[in-house]
Design a protein that fits this description.
alpha+beta, Rossmann fold, 29% helix, globular
Amino acid sequence: MLLEVKNLTAGYGTVTALKNISFNVKEGEIVAMIGPNGAGKSIALNSVSGVLKAKDGSISSGEFYSRAKALRGCEQTSLLLKGYL
């Protein structure tokens, strides 16, 4: 399993935007998160990548987490030059 998210709860401050979402990504899969504005897509991705601290739940990850952790704090220009954007 490349990425497994179980019962993730996240939000900003006292506002809980996501409550108990779960999903997994297997190696070789292409996965998309779709939904209307305000559905929590960005909060989910920010929580999984470590940009935003999750309030509850678990995130088990392999290589994805290692790459995301290495990229945290990089400027967008640097990410663009490395081919991540």
